[in-house]
Amino acid sequence: MAVPVVDPSLNPSSVEADAVVADPPRRARRRPARADLLAIGAYVLLGVLVCLNYWGDVEHRVSSHLPTDHSWFEWLFAHGAYSVQHLENPLFTTRQNAPDGVNMMANTSLLGVTLPLAPLTLLLGPQVMYALYLGAALSATAATSYWVLSRHLVRSRAAAFAGGAFLGFAPGIVHHANGQPNFVSNFLLPLIVARVLRLGEPGRWRRNGLALGLLVAYQVFINEEMLLLTALACLVVVVAYVVQRPRAARERAGSFLAALGLGGGLALLLTAYPIWFQFNGPQSYRGLQGGVFHNWGEDLVAFVTFARDTIAGDEAVEKTIGLTEQNTWFGWPLVLVALGALVLLVRRSVAARILAVLVVVFTIASIGPVVRFNGAETDVDGPWAYIPDDLPLVEMMMPTRLSLIVVAAVGVLLALAWDTLAGAGRPPVPAPRAAADDTGRADEADARPDRAASRRRVLRLAGYAAIVAALVPLIPRPLPAQDIDPPPRFITAGGWRPYVPEGRTLVPVPIPSNVHGLHTLRWSALTGHEFPIPGGYFIGPNERGEGVFGAPNRPTSTLIYSTMDKNVVPEITEENRRQAVDDLRFWRASVVVLGSGPREAVLRDLMAELLGPPQRVDDVWLWDVRDRV
Fold first, then answer.
1. Adjacent-strand bridge partners of 508
2. CB 341 within 8 Å of CB 417
3. Burial of 22 (0-12, 13-18, 19+ CB in 10 A)
């Protein structure tokens, strides 16, 4: 099949970029296919390496960086399986935060992944699915990036491999793999960008528009925030192209706008109800309380620092400047190589100039409201200081994550730089050999091209070495993991069943929240959501309709958390006991269960003061409260 080029001017290394490449001979086709398989195989191995610590004991290990997020996404895989198995609406659930429930569209629910993978989750369990999917998502992102680069931008498979590897396993991406698989599930984004760049193709606006609409609609159910970042990047790319190639842009404007309108209309049609549900359905909210993300900007020193999860990283550094997220963390060698590549390519390549615009715009945008330097806030205002934090979308954005667009730009730049080096090494068309005269001048003329070719070869090898030297320190290490206690046998063996009738809840102690109850949240996930629980780890509305993390605390949950923090049972009054019964009635509780875990002894004493002596059933302490509520 012929391979169309998006725009000849975007490809600096293509000699005949405006030509349609004819089908190559069978032997020539085998080589790219073999290179493709090798590239994908290498990406798969990297994905396995990143998750290696989980596989050591996949059922009892979670991320030591974000253990609560890890447990939340295990819960999400169980939610997808439960929704498919019971044919329930996946946009909402009451299996967490009972009885109010959770709006799954208003949370990072990953429905585009958990629903189609539901059969595997039912077969393997959410812990195995989490680790399996995490590595696969990283590898798939690298693979689709490689495919787009090799088919639409560069000729060298090695260049596409280097760019794809960085786009899939950049330090900022691997950092999010610590408990946030939604931010490494970027395998559709390269396809979306490629499709946007092809919208102006004459005669193909219907096909391109339909393809874009389907891709965008599906990405909504994976990660809306990354889709928004991609849309912002595409907007800057299109504007930068129009400024540099106004004539070509005018010629393609009709097809581009028609395809864009068709794609946007299709995406809106497919996602209209879920998006309405997200903002208007039960447990929806408007913005986050206090704009908690608005102040999270990227530290300037982070750009030249090695990330913790790379072979050159240092855990001590992240305690200084890694207080929010590690989204860039390129290390100083890559920053130097990227700057050098931009300087060398920006005059000869439209693509390089567009990448330069992306780097400048989104580096500045990622700084946030205050410039941070080496972990300290300076007196210099950042760009977000002049943006109201209550604007729609803006109120939910985290400035530092805009630097992920810079990550993507650097990945493409690496591919362009490598491809330019490879193009410099391709043999030119030989010129007719001049006849030698008696003075031997023809031999001298032949020697000069040889010396020039030798210099080019040395410079090319130096360029390859610089790129490799910048990338090797960024090879990821296995993500840090920690052991976690398994759920009680009472839970996993179904001992709870006689105590929890339909329509009632099991109240675990501590009640899950964004701070406490990591291990009790997993009880729900690892039993396939067979019983609903109060509390949880999610974003829901407060009394003013603003988004807050976790369920609003009730008197009993507040008492439990304060007792855990102080490790002392406070003096319990009759009012405390009355409030406990009211809370259990609100939660529709049938049984309160305390298993082994942090602060078990003090929590047992607290609950005994509130509810009376517990029963010892199997390996848990149990309070049967059905006759009280």
1. 593
2. yes
3. exposed
Beta bridge partners, 92, equal 103
Transcribe 224-245 into DSSP letters: HHHHHHHHHHHHHHHHHHHHH-
Backbone φ/ψ region at 321: left (φ over 0), alpha (ψ -120 to 50), beta: alpha
pLDDT at site 629: 80
Tell me which amino acid residue 589 is. A
Q: Strand, coil or helix: what is 318?
A: helix
Find all residues with CB under 8 Å of 240, minimum gap 6, and list them: 353, 354, 357, 358
CA distances, 535 to each of 97, 337, 511, 583 (Å):
4, 49, 6, 12
Mean pLDDT of all residues in 106-112: 95
Predicted local distance difference test score (pLDDT) of residue 582: 96
Whether 438 has a pLDDT exceeding 60, the answer reads: no
> pLDDT exceeding 90 applies to what percent of the chain?
75
Burial environment of residue 579 by CB neighbours within 10 A (0 to 12, 13 to 18, 19 or more): middle
Q: Helix, strand, or coil here: 468?
A: helix
Can you read off the two tokens belonging to residue 249? 């842009």
Closest alpha carbon to 424 in 384, 446, 452: 452
Would the pLDDT of 9 be above 50? Answer: no
Task: Report the percentage of the chain scoring pLDDT > 70.
Answer: 88
Mean pLDDT of 323-347: 92
What distance in Å separates the CA atoms of residue 42 and residue 36, rounded to the nearest whole number? 10
Compute the distance between CA of residue 210 and CA of residue 259 in angstroms, rounded to an integer: 8
Distance CA 401, CA 384 (A): 13
CA 276 to chain centre: 24
CA 610, CA 556: separation in Å to the nearest integer?
9
Query: Strands, E, within 69-171: which ranges?
Result: 92-93, 102-103
Q: How many CB atoms lie within 10 A of CB 585?
A: 12
Give the span between the Cα atoms of 348 and 66, in whole angstroms: 44
Specify the residue for token string 């398994």: 486
Query: What integer pLDDT is reported at residue 392 of this predicted model?
Result: 67
**Tokens 């391109």 label which residue?**
208
C-alpha to C-alpha distance for 499 and 36, rounded to whole angstroms: 56
Pairing of β 505-509 and β 589-594: parallel
Q: Is the pTM of this model over 0.85?
A: yes
